[in-house]
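Please produce the structure of this protein holding alpha-D-glucopyranose.
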Amino acid sequence: MNHQLTSILLGFLCFSFIGIKAQDTNSEIIKAIDHDKMQWFKEAKLGIFIHWGIYAVDGISESWSFYNEYLTHEDYLEQRNGFTATKYKPQEWAQLIKDSGAQYSVVTSKHHDGFALWNTKFGSLNAVSHSAAEKDVLSPLVKALRKKDLKIGIYFSLPDWSSELYTHFTSTKKRYSIEEDPLRWQQYLNYMNNQLQELKNNYSPDLWWFDGDWEHSSEAWKSAKIRTSLLKDAPKTIINSRLSGQGDYQTPEIGAPVYRPEAKYWELCMTINDSWGYQQADTNYKTSQQILDIFVDCISKGGNLLLDIGPKADGTIDPIQKDRLLKLGSWIKKHHKAVYETTRGIPYEHFYGPTTLSKDKQTLYLYVRDIPKDGKIVVKGISNAIHRAYVVGNGSILNQQKISKLYWNQYPGISYIQLPKDTIDPYYTVVALVLDGPIRLYSDQNGAVEQN
Ligand code: GLC
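Below is the modeled complex.
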């Protein structure tokens, strides 16, 4: 079988894996949340995830392809020779991320395969000494992202399946168990913590994005100690929930929560097609409409979207991935008032669609995906007077009609808001309702008879 065909086949084999252990990664978060430090995160709404590693060479799934024994570890590592980064332009990546409307980016410094993108003094697998690129590809990216005023998230896999010091190797082969050889495990932890300190010193990340905690208990990882050491002299750094109970926010994966999560801070990480890393054979790209559907869903439920891209081994980014980011960015730019610095919206009983509220709760944003046949959208049970209704990013003031509002009871009536055809956005039209004060939702069960 020729090389390309093998890659395609492997690619298909690997798609199916996504999401299998997602549930247990959405673990507990710490009790005492520092709300002050979460502020930028809460208002950011969009981050771009970058999965870049040697797995992009053959276009197979990151780390899992050898872990699940679709190919040998040796063959997997062969990809290092194809990881050239010859056309890598970190400034262009940073510009693209900025243009997507994202406020932060999370970069895989090291995935479960143990391949480090930076010039680490620890371990024996990194882009400088062990790949065709022969250079540190992480530092220039962090620098470029900072220059664009983007917050930096460092993804770090707790497991390193390539390390002789680590317990797990593949799904059927374990090197040892911690009980059998606690000393070896301690050596692994030393190696891992040394790398974390190195990353901390090099990049002072705003956010740590851990992964893979499911393989051991919190006690085994000594996750509380990791948290303490990472927050030392950097108390405002945010940590995701995959540090076994030591994170600040929840990290659902792929599946957008159907019901509003209870958590105050959460972020959905999501692939742009069905793969985290670049897989040429994976053409199941989400359309711009679908990406916006998920994005709007997240922000209306009070969360962030961390949308993933997978750059190629030569450092270029697939035109489809670029296109998706740019389209998302231009929609966000047009509607920025209704996106950043908003909070989650109101229950669907009041409006059959996603909504957000301005920070002062005096403006309600309605996201209209499908245009009603009479051009009218319906809002119910808002006790405030609606001072003004207008189309965000367009400015048109909209006509409103209120029905069932009588002087003798409290029932606030039903508002019909007319959307002219020329105000319709190709993806989501956003209507702002400027209220007479912070929103008051009417929830009285029998308001209609109160004054009879
Ligand atoms: C998972 C996978 C991993 C991927 C990550 C992104 O935990 O193991 O391959 O990088 O999710 O969220």
